[in-house]
Structures are given as C-alpha cells and as structure tokens.
Design a protein that fits this description.
The chain is of the alpha/beta class. The protein has 9 helices and 11 strands. Helices cover 41% and strands 25% of the residues. It has a 9-stranded mixed beta sheet with strand order 3-2-1-4-5-8-9-10-11, with helices on both faces. A two-stranded antiparallel ribbon has the order 6-7. Bound molecules: 3-hydroxy-5-(hydroxymethyl)-2-methylisonicotinaldehyde (PXL).
C-alpha cells in the first residue's frame, strides 16, 4: 500500500488542513501519515482561537523516523504556521521522500490578504519551499504575494500566465493556480505544466464562499496524483469534487460556512480511485 506524508496544522474544529487531507487521501486507498505543525482550537477564520506551534516536536520526530528507516512515497504540505517549521519541512522532503510526488500548497492567504500572523518573511520562506515541488497549488493571493505582483480581482490570461511563468522559473515543475474566476459565473484552475502546456478548467460558481475549499481541492488533487491519475484528470476530478461538496453543503438546512460538507461525496472518490 502506498504511504504518503502530509504536513499541515491540526485545527480541532473547522474543516481544513489535516482533518480534510486525512479522510480524503485515505479514500483513495492510500495511507495518509500526518505530521501536525500546529494545534489550533479552530481554524483562524473563527473569532476566538488558540494556536500552539508544534515545531519543537519536529526534530525529535525526524530523528525517530530516521532510526526506524521510515520513507514516504510522496509528500504534500499545506498550512504550516511558522518559518522555523518551513526549514524543517525542506529537510523532511529531502530525507524522507522516496521518489514520490511532492506537492506544496502554500496556504497563507486569500482575497488579497495574508491570514493572521503571517508576514513577508513567511511569504519568502513559502516561496523557497515551492521551489522544491513537483506541483504547487497557490491561489491568486498567494501567487501575487510570492511574486511581488499586484493582487487583481479582475484579470485575463496574461496575468495568470505571468504568474505561472514566474512560479516555474522559481523552481516548481507544475503550477496550478486555484480559485481563478472566469466571467461572473465560473471558478476553477489555471495550470502551467512541465510539458509547457497551459490548461484551464472551470465549474459553475456558487454565490456563497466557504472556508477550506482550497484544502478540499488540494487533498483530492493530491490523492488523484498519488494514485497515478494523469495531472489533467486529477485536476478536473478535484474541481468537480469541490463544486459537488459546496452543492452538498448548500442543500443542508442551517449549514455552517466554516467548512464544506465534503464527507457527503466521499463515495465519488472511492469510485474514481
Ligand atoms: O484552509 C486554510 C487554513 C488552514 N489552516 C488554518 C487556517 C486556514 C485558513 O484560514 O486558519 C489554521
């Protein structure tokens, strides 16, 4: 059985990061090992939250894994929470990845702003981490911050192409920009692949915005890649799955907007994988 490692925070409530990645990657029939970088009471889109940096645990965990000769057939990183952690993550990728796909989701902002507690130093550290990846999945906010480009709400393919080109020059082999709007009604991804091909895929956009959709997309996309699906097929499935999870959320009375009801669609993954 394939075994991958995901490195992200553990938010006890509010579906994102590990509580999304573990069930989704597991649904692909892949063992999803997890290294929590921080422990939060909820994700940071709530009003009150606690944050405990678990960076101090990473070195002893690495040493113990080395003694056990543990390796992973792929590594997927998300929200990390601190610069010190990013340095350790780089080493983990070098030491513990056994030839698998490395995906970096530089989760650090949205809607033109960085999440709480992040600054330009954190952005630069994420940019350096992205350089090591086979595939990265920034949204437009994250790409703009990493590249020092203006954040635009209205844009065409030139803006997206410039982002992709610069992110690939920085080192990432494949770039998938997420949360891209097309016209007033569509949302999806704009991708620049290692082959030089540019590829876009969109679905109908719902009015409401939900937290954690980027994490659902990234986890499904990574699960698809790790199970050997071609990149374009994995991208399309992940977009459709994210859209379906949003629809499933809206169908529930009194739904909450802190995370999407991706659990309702898990069977689609087992059928696809
Ligand atoms: O979904 C991104 C994310 C992950 N982890 C934490 C967050 C957020 C977004 O706000 O706060 C802790």
């Amino acid at each position: 059985m394939k075994k991958i490692l995901t490195i992200q925070d553990f938010s006890c409530v509010g579906k994102c990061s590990l509580t999304v990645a573990i069930p989704i990657v597991s649904a692909f029939g892949i063992e999803c090992c997890a290294l929590p970088t921080a422990l939060l009471s909820t994700h940071t889109q709530f009003k009150n939250w606690t944050f405990t940096n678990l960076c101090g645990q990473i070195e002893p965990i690495k040493r113990a894994w080395e003694k056990e000769n543990i390796k992973f057939q792929g590594i997927y990183t998300g929200y990390l929470g601190g610069i010190d952690i990013i340095e350790s993550v780089k080493e983990i990728i070098k030491k513990f990845n056994d030839g698998g796909i490395v995906m970096v989701d530089p989760a650090m902002g949205d809607d033109g702003e960085l999440y709480a507690n992040f600054d330009m130093e954190y952005v630069s550290a994420n940019k350096a981490l992205c350089a090591l990846a086979d595939v990265i999945t920034p949204n437009i906010t994250e790409a703009a911050f990493m590249l020092g480009m203006d954040y635009k709400q209205e844009y065409g393919s030139e803006y997206l192409l410039e982002m992709c080109q610069k992110l690939r020059q920085n080192g990432a082999k494949n770039v998938v920009i997420t949360g891209v709007r097309k016209g007033k009604t569509q949302v999806g991804v704009f991708c620049s692949l290692q082959s030089g091909e540019v590829f876009e895929y969109y679905t109908e956009r719902e009015q409401n915005d939900f937290h954690g959709t980027g994490d659902v997309f990234a986890s499904v996309f990574y699960g698809g890649l790790a199970s050997g699906k071609p990149l374009k097929q994995a991208v399309k499935f992940a977009c459709d799955y994210t859209k379906k999870s949003i629809t499933a959320t809206l169908a529930e009375p009194n739904y909450s907007d802190y995370g999407v009801y991706f659990e309702k669609c898990i069977k689609d993954i087992t059928n696809f994988a």
